[in-house]
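Limitations
The structure tokens in this dataset are predictions for the assembled complex, not deposited experimental models. Users should treat interface geometry with appropriate caution, especially where small molecules or nucleic acid strands are included. An illustrative entry is reproduced here so readers can see what is and is not provided.
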Amino acid sequence: MVHVVRNAVEARNLSKHYGTKKGLIKAVDRLSLTVGEGETFGLLGPNGAGKTTTVRLLNCIIRPSGGTASVNGHDIVSDQLGVKRTTGLLAESPGLYEKLSAEEFLEFIGSLYDVPKDLLPTRIESLLELFGLHGRRNHLLEGYSRGMKQKVLIAAALIHDPPLLFFDEPTSTLDPRAALMVKDLMKDLSEGAGKTIVICSHILPIVEELCDRIGIINNGRLVAVGTVEELLSKSGQPTLEKAYIELTGGVEKQELLSWRELRSAGA
Amino acid sequence: MPGHKWLVVAKNVYRVRTSGFRSVRKIFPILVAAPVILAIFYIVPWFGETFADELEVFFVSEVAVMFIQTLLFTFFVLFVTFPINFALNAAQEEHYDVFLAAPIEPKDVLLGRFVGDVPFYTVAIVAAASIMAALLVPLGLTILQGAVILAVFALTFLSAMWIGVILAALIRAKIGTSARGKDIGRAFSMTIALPLVALIYALMRGGVYDALVDTGSEGLLPLALDLLPSSWGADIVVDIAANPGDSLAISLRSAISFAGLCALFPGLLWFGSKAAGRAYNLDIRGLSSQLAKPEGLFYRSVRRLSGSGSFGSLVVAIFKDYGRRLENTSKVIYVVGLVFLVTLFFGDAEDSEMGVVMLLFLLPFLSGFIIGEVTVRGKENLFIYRKAPNGEPRLVKARIVQGSITILPVAALSTLISHMNTPEPQAMELLAVAAYISALSVALVTMSLGLFLMMPVFSERPADMMLNVMVGFFFMFGYFFAALLLGVFAELEGWLLILGLSWIGGLAVLQLGYRNLRRME
Ligand SMILES: Nc1ncnc2c1ncn2[C@@H]1O[C@H](COP(=O)(O)OP(=O)(O)OP(=O)(O)O)[C@@H](O)[C@H]1O
Ligand SMILES: [Mg+2]
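Predicted assembly:
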């Protein structure tokens, strides 16, 4: 078990609203959340629940409409610099300079995060080795496949070796082997290097295996939080998948093939 | 509903084009047409009436034939190049996969795109045709004659557009959709306008015009022009202008021309879709993976110039991403080409100030083209900087350094070119002008950066890009006007005033842009 010294993430009533009064979207709605230092935390929730928005708020990419949060002891509004220095982010749809090679891109990101000059080249080298991209490090990113780009972006999130890492759907474009590698990497980062990790994912087995605690978000609100066992007992379900469905509103029985009948009726 | 797939595509094109103003989508054509019609029937005729006598003299002269011929020709080329330009910029790249997956034939895609764009081109056609018609109204045109003129313009332009669409498709099929191919396409789309500009300048000032009139039908150029469909239309218009009010007084030549035009368009449609169906088989070529070149002397110098440290790496990274896009190079070439052409045709050996004024007005374009890159890769790209500690100020600084390093040599070269007519250029004067233009360039880079951050352009569509560039241009126009008003233009004080205003304006706009960059979500 991980020894929790202090909280890496502490959010209190964090809110983010989009749109005008007429069509107000509460992407994140008075969310309170703590992630202990050294903990691996999983964020689950249906599409549009507010996971990405939460991660963006905690990384100072967007400003909260209400509430506060501190990340590694730095306030996300008043001490953005402190937050940015001590976190790494793999965004859901990250920006990329397509006309740079993998090596050049990592050098660019490394410089942005002020990685010491004598350290940077070897770090780039070993990250590229790790992701099996060393052979194509001089190729422009525009020619990379989606999964290869994802690997480069994960490497970029690690380049300044921050104590807290956010991964927004890290494995959604990766092949099974690469997904396994990334999963093991996250495990090692947590167990071997003592990193705090926040993962947003729809892949329940990964979340179940890696995460010390899991938070379930629905409609911008945290509806449940705890270890897998706690979630199971809270929902009274045997598996995480069933618990997830139960906690996010259950299933309505739908006639899944009804859309076909209309067609034959119309023809 | 099989058989009408092009209609589906056309509707989609229209929706995409009008996505910016959804609420008025349905009435957009009317909204645009109304003021145009107002202009035709009230404003232009009034203007025409005042000059009725002169107009009558003009239209029976030899010059009229040449004038209308070149006018139509210019529009013709413009309409051919416009769709090429658009298609090569690959604005609809994303829809490509959709078409690939759906059971649809290439000719339907092409025809659909063409038809979807017609409402927009119609506005231009109606405007051009009605100005011509309105000029003739005071001479006593019959309704039939007016309709014929409108038809001539519409047929000529639609033919040109269709040719453009087909050519664009063929070019794209040739260069493929690889990243490299797209680059080449975009680069090509920019410079394709240069020959056209050269031609217009040559006609306006270069004496080609006089030559055309003098040689009558003997020279090669008039013969070549005669073969173009645009000239057939000119015959008809001039014929009508010479016999206003008499619908039947049409020469055999005009009648044949008109028949030819009427036959040309459907012929082109048929032929075009056949040709395109063959060549443009909608298949995506394999991605050719490109290698990054090892850092040469240039990037090493850039790195050193910007202080070696992490900031140097930043500037170099931005520079590489900029420099490896061919279209950026072609934009710079385009501006330098303009400087050359304007100097060639309008340069006055006696009056070197006009050269500087020309540079003054071309520089906002140059700086806009260079800096416009900053937001084009989208918000996500800007968020890279937002996430990094102090990322945004660094982005702004790095862009200014990169923009300045790019613009300075180009500005120096343009200064040299703008003096090529001067018989014995004084080294000191050249140096002074170059220094002045350089100081101005950096101010304009600052302003362009501010503009693009204030009104970010998240797409590669040239039209969106041009808006900011035009705003920059109007700023410069304002400075220039201030100097004129204060009566110090073309004096040292005037030049300094323009420079000072450029810097003040540049820094102010940058401040606003920076604020917007930090707020953007
Ligand atoms: N920039 C924006 N403007 C307007 N609405 C937004 C914006 N960003 C997010 N939203 C809205 O906020 C809500 C939450 O979105 P968010 O991206 O956080 O969901 P998510 O949980 O990450 O979903 P997914 O699993 O699909 O990634 C959605 O309803 C979305 O439409
Ligand atoms: Mg998300």
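Some entries come with short summary sentences. For this one: Chain B touches chain A through 35 residues (CB under 8 Å).
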